[in-house]
Specification:
Blueprint (H helix, E strand, L loop, with lengths): L2 E6 L1 H4 L8 H6 L7 H9 L2 E6 L5 H10 L9 E6 L5 E5 L2 E5 L13 H13 L4 H20 L4 E6 H4 L6 H4 L11 H15 L6
Parallel strand pairs: 1-2, 1-3, 3-6
Antiparallel strand pairs: 4-5
Helix pairs in contact: 3-9
């Protein structure tokens, strides 16, 4: 059976839209799903969702590599590229993703010098356009390899570009829950956009 593989950050993981999340507990309506679930249902295929909150592009690429042998001919692949200013730092024998509000995080076991080094790198270098160009090259190469593997559809999409003007959880709750991830309504809309753009014609 063909599979739908989804890789990405919190926008693929469905941040805020799972049991025990405040938004889910107070606003969930029967049938609400995140976009990978909607899309796999439309395609009638098994879903393998490897979206992870806070992922850097390095983590996303690592995950694709780890799952490479499991991805088969005629599978569908969606890769959501995240913010290029995220990067990973080895802490306690594992990588921790560093993103925009890391300066607020005082809980990790770091010396003041280590903490300031991360903040300074993030401030001075992490947003440089060269990182975006580098990651795009890497993802384009991965896409070519997946196509040569005879995956049926391989899609690269960019959270910074493709999620503009979508309703967020903050919007859906009128500011009650300050969370700028996709609302349930937007998850359904995004799945419909992906289906119409990439599948509707080829599946007729």
């Amino acid at each position: 059976m063909n599979k739908l593989w989804t890789f990405g950050d919190s926008n693929t993981a469905g941040h805020g839209c799972h049991k025990h999340d405040e938004y889910y507990e107070n606003y969930y309506k029967f049938g609400d799903k995140i976009w990978p679930e909607w899309l796999s249902e439309k395609l009638n295929v098994e879903l393998k969702n490897f979206g992870k909150n806070g992922s850097s592009n390095d983590t996303i690429i690592d995950t694709i590599i780890e799952k490479w042998e499991e991805i088969k001919e005629n599978d569908y692949i969606f890769i959501g590229m995240t913010h290029p200013h995220r990067f990973d730092v080895p802490i306690d024998n594992q990588f921790e993703s560093i993103f925009h509000d890391f300066a607020k995080n005082k809980t990790l076991p770091l010396s003041m010098d280590e903490f300031e080094t991360i903040i300074n790198f993030q401030y001075y270098f992490a947003d440089n356009i060269l990182y975006k160009v580098r990651y795009r090259k890497r993802f384009d190469w991965i896409k070519k390899q997946l196509i040569s593997k005879k995956c049926k559809i391989v899609i690269l999409w960019d959270v910074q570009i493709d999620l503009k003007n979508f309703e967020t959880i903050n919007d859906a709750t009128n500011g009650e829950i300050v969370d700028y991830h996709l609302s349930f309504k937007s998850h359904k809309l995004l799945s419909n956009i992906f289906y119409k753009k990439y599948f509707e014609k080829c599946l007729i």
